[in-house]
Amino acid sequence: RKEVEQDPGPFNVPEGATVAFNCTYSNSASQSFFWYRQDCRKEPKLLMSVYSSGNEDGRFTAQLNRASQYISLLIRDSKLSDSATYLCVVMSMEYGNKLVFGAGTILRVKS
Amino acid sequence: EPEVTQTPSHQVTQMGQEVILRCVPISNHLYFYWYRQILGQKVEFLVSFYNNEISEKSEIFDDQFSVERPDGSNFTLKIRSTKLEDSAMYFCASSEGLGGYEQYFGPGTRLTVT
């Protein structure tokens, strides 16, 4: 079983749409969770950390369900500039501070 | 806004040659990392470094790889004898602390081994 699994997509959505991505992780000892975005051939950029209580940053909302080992990201009012690959990332102190990346979900927002 | 920088942006080398990839982490960060991404694949952890020693390394990080903090600002990754399969993007990252502290990535060095 992959450590972090994501639907690769692509998700093709019109501008203004709401889109949701899901991710599952296998290591129950994982302690910290993040969403990064990655543009083509660029570095991963931190989008947001994910907390058990859920958190929101503008149009972006992240949720964590530890019991189901499930993380989600909701993007409201999609913009063309949101087109990117969204990476679900987990970290366990058990393995030092290393980040374990999912393969990413491709989002394409079209006008 | 402080950022991680990396040089060079692109390095082409022949198989068997040594390469050194350089990174300048964010200045108040104490933890440093190298990751790599083979084209079309996911980002993979190579090594973490704190207090002048390796704290964690992956199976990929074999004897051909080494890391060093030669001065107060640079953090380097050396590959002693490059192989074709070392061709990838190499990303340096840094964080203020452990646990939930976020890691910030540099723009990467594209290594092409011919």
Quick tags:
heterodimer, A: 111 residues, six-stranded mixed sheet, five-stranded antiparallel sheet, 53% strand, B: 114 residues, mainly beta, seven-stranded mixed sheet, 0% helix, globular
The proportion of residues forming helix of chain A, as a percent range, comes to: under 10%
User: Mind summarizing the main beta sheet of chain A?
Assistant: 6 strands, mixed
H/E series of chain B: EEEEEEEEEEE
Specify the helix fraction band of chain B: under 10%
Distance between the termini of chain A: 37 Å
Q: Residue-averaged pLDDT of chain A, rounded?
A: 93
Query: What oligomeric state is this?
Result: heterodimer
C-alpha Rg of chain A (nearest Å): 13 Å
What is the average of the pLDDT values of chain B? Answer: 95
Number of strands of chain A: 11
Gyration radius over CA of chain B: 13 Å
Strand residue content of chain B: over 45%
Structural class of chain A: mainly beta
Task: Give the overall shape of chain B, derived from the CA principal axes.
Answer: globular
Q: What summary fits the major beta sheet of chain B?
A: 7 strands, mixed
Largest interface, per-chain counts? A-B, 24 and 28 residues
Q: Beta-strand level of the residues of chain A, as a percent range? A: over 45%
Flag low-confidence runs of chain B: none
The total beta strand count of chain B reads: 11
Describe the structure in your own words:
The complex is a heterodimer of chains A (111) and B (114). Helix content of chain A is 0%, strand content 53%. Chain A is mainly β and 111 residues long. In chain A, the strands form two sheets. In chain A, strands 2, 4, 5, 9, 10 and 11 form a six-stranded mixed β-sheet that branches. In chain A, a hairpin with a 7-residue loop joins strand 9 and strand 10. With 114 residues, chain B is mainly beta. Chain B contains no helices and eleven strands. The N and C termini of chain B lie far apart (37 Å). The mean pLDDT of chain B is 95. Classes of the chains: A mainly beta (111), B mainly beta (114). At the A-B interface, strand 4, strand 5 and strand 10 of A face strand 4, strand 5, strand 9 and strand 10 of B.
